[in-house]
Amino acid sequence: MARPKMEEERKAQILDALETMVLRDGLAQLTLAKVAQEAKLPRSLLRYFAGNKTDLILLLFERMIERGEAKIEGLTTSQQDELSVEQVLDLVLDELLGDENLSVMVDELWPYAALDRRIQERLRGLYQRLCQELVDRMSSELIGADDDDRFRRAYGIVAMGFGATFFSDISFVPRDPDTIRNVARELLRPNLST
Fold first, then answer.
1. Domains of the chain by residue range
2. How far apart are alpha carbons 194 and 108 in whole angstroms?
3. For the stretch 97-111, what's the b/e string if a residue is b when 16 or more beta carbons lie within 10 angstroms of its beta carbon?
């Protein structure tokens, strides 16, 4: 059995190689042999530390989710004062959904989410947390009639930003690059009738 620190280092080495490959070539071309070559490890070590192709994809998904959670955590813990709705909106639209590499990774990994309940739960948790951050800020800024109204608005903003990310991959973009942000701001108007 490998020492815990060495196991973490090997997994990180493998995931770094896998992430590089996915960003460069996509998942369709992925083989264990190619990942082992990119990681500069024998295939047997790759299998020992990371498992089969499905295990690798699940590990990469986990890494992407952890990265998203770290961005949320970093923003919420680095602020001296309470976050404003605008800061959370920036997090959602710029830091998470606007991160080009993260967007490419999500595009490649998304079809696999339907195959694994653990991934579904983690993704759902991440998006619920984003929505909850928005709901909390809207509540403190007296935006929305109640938490149900605030959640509908937050869900709309996250879904709209997520959809825009996928649309940008096929070059379907609005004439005004601030369209999503402006519509999101409309959803954040205190007296919006729903």
1. 1-51, 62-187
2. 35
3. bbbeebbbbbebbee
CB contact at 8 A, 7 and 49: yes
pLDDT, tens digit (0-9, with 9 covering 90-100), for 66-125: 888 888 777 666 665 677 788 778 877 887 777 778 777 877 888 888 888 888 888 888
Does the domain at 62-187 match CATH 2.60.40? Answer given as: no
> Residues 119-129: pLDDT tens digits?
888 888 888 98
CATH numeric code, 1-51: 1.10.10.60
| DSSP code per residue over 74-91 | HHHHH-SSPPPHHHHHHI
Mean pLDDT of the chain: 84
